[in-house]
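INTERNAL AUDIT FORM
Audit reference: QA-55
Scope: verify that the stored structure record matches its stored sequence.
Auditor: D.O.
Record contents follow.
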Amino acid sequence: MGCFKRFVLSLIALALLAACATPVPTPTPTPAPKKIVVATDATWPPAEFIDEKTKEIVGFDIDLMKAIAQEVGLEVEFKNVAWDGIFAGLEAGEYDAIISSVTITDERKQKYDFSDPYFNAGQLIAVRIDNQDIKGPADLKGKVAGAQIGTTGAFEIAKIEGATLKEYDTIDLAFMDLLEGRIDAVVADSPLTMAFVAKYPDKLKWVGEPFTEEYYGIVVKKGNKELLDLINKGLKAVKEKGILDQLVKKWYGPSK
């Protein structure tokens, strides 16, 4: 056989081998996790606050949102936003969601969509440790009670006939006025109230029991079903795996 024929036959053999070979699939690139921006008013320890050493936003809500995001493959960036403008920013599209100890109310549900509840936190009253007059909501009649503006604590004080509501931009300012004797009581979510009392155990105490039943939820813009479904999926997983209970114990203690 001539060299030319052998060359041609070799080419044909190579072509047949190439045709029979299993094609190597092109690897599908792993999509980058979807990034969302989540707003929080970082003035509510231990739920959300600024770590004085690291200057990062930390707290129960922050850890919870991170855990939810990890379960569903989201990347989260947190944005510190003052409470009085936090809902307006969501409506304007400045961020995708809010996690900031937001109580689920019928009024808010008309404007925004909420995740499934993740924490039950009724309103609780704090007073100075030497106060013997205030033991419950009815005793706020004739007294000055402080709360953060736009919160359910403020709404509850406003319902009490004869009570004077003093509103603050941040809840820590209300507690500072209570410590200084400028107001008689502070009304806030029970975990927050207990946290401040624990910080000043020789100066403050909480009285009675939580007098409302309220639930926190994560807020998204009305109609953002895709994100809401992802958050609820992640929240369900966090609950089922016991992660939520671990975070409650970490930030609020074993009694909560």
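Auditor finding: record pair retrieved intact. Residues 123-207 form a domain with the D-Maltodextrin-Binding Protein; domain 2 fold (CATH 3.40.190.10).
Action required: none
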